[in-house]
Amino acid sequence: MFKRFPDVTFIWKFETDQIEFLKGIQNVHTVKWAPQNDLLAHHNLKLFITHGGMGSVLETVHRGVPVLMVPLFGDQMRNAKMLERIGVGFEFDRHDLNYVEKLSGAVKELLTNESYTQASKRIQFLIENRPFDIRDSFLKQVEFAARVGPIPSMTSIVPRTGFVAYYMLDAVALVSAVIAFACVSLWLIVRKIWSMVRGQKKVKTT
User: Fold this and answer.
1) Exposed e or buried b for every residue in 39-69, given b needs 16+ CB within 10 A?
2) Share above pLDDT 70 across residues of the chain, in percent, rounded to a whole number
3) Please, are residues 95 and 103 in contact by the beta-carbon 8 Å criterion?
4) Is 28 inside any structural domain?
5) How many other C-beta atoms can be found within 10 angstroms of the C-beta atom of residue 151?
6) pLDDT band at 23 (very low <50, low <70, confident <90, very high)
7) Residues 118 and 167 in one domain
8) Is residue 3 domain-resident?
9) Is residue 56 domain-resident?
10) 94 pLDDT exceeds 70?
11) Secondary structure of residue 74 in the 3-state scheme
12) Assign residue 24 a region: left if phi > 0, alpha if psi is -120 to 50, beta otherwise?
């Protein structure tokens, strides 16, 4: 795939030394660790390929870089759909990574279609020019709390929650009961089948 983009330099975070398959490919540089946020801030960076962890998502939109998402598990699937919805990139199925045509096509689309870059830069602009600053908001909240003291109407009810509700023991009990019922039912079914099989064997031997 890399040979199809001779004018593009790829920086690949690759944590092992088994890179024999890259022998002879001049436009790929492997590193075991890279300052991701600094790389995303570089003006020559045109595309970011990532599994889509929340940290990577936040850094990507903050730096205004188009992204190819290859989610593996957990929240990465949701993150990929979120970025795809706002137009800064799209999701690529991890099972298709061995298909050179599909992967090359996805990379080419993101490198050549200006709409992804424009969408990325717009999101970056919106973040940088939001009408409030998160740090200022945090400091104001702390100063407000120090000045007025505890406010009953804004106090969480969690400390006053009962032992059962606090530890969600009712939900745990319900789930445990369902699992226990399923296990007992499965055991009874297996026991019944085993009894029938044994009964048929006795009939045949007699």
Assistant:
1) bbeeeebbbbbbebeeebbebbbebbbbbbb
2) 93
3) no
4) no
5) 9
6) confident
7) no
8) no
9) yes
10) yes
11) coil
12) left
Contact 22, 31 (CB under 8 A): no
Q: Do 121 and 78 share a structural domain?
A: yes
DSSP annotation of 43 reads: T
Integer Cα distance of 129 and 134 in angstroms: 12
Counting residues of the chain whose pLDDT is more than 90, the rounded percentage is: 54
Find the mean pLDDT for residues 175-182. Answer: 94
Domain count of the fold of the chain: 2
Residue closest to 91 by CA, chosen among 100, 99, 101, 79? 79
Domain limits at 199? 159-204
Among 5-14, 101-110, 155-164, name the most confident range: 101-110
Q: Tell me: the pLDDT tens digits for 132-157?
A: 777 888 888 888 888 888 777 666 66
Q: Which residues pair with 48 in a beta bridge?
A: 67
In this prediction the pTM is: 0.63
**Cβ atoms of 109 and 115 closer than 8 Å:** no
Query: For residue 106, what is the domain's CATH number?
Result: 3.40.50.2000
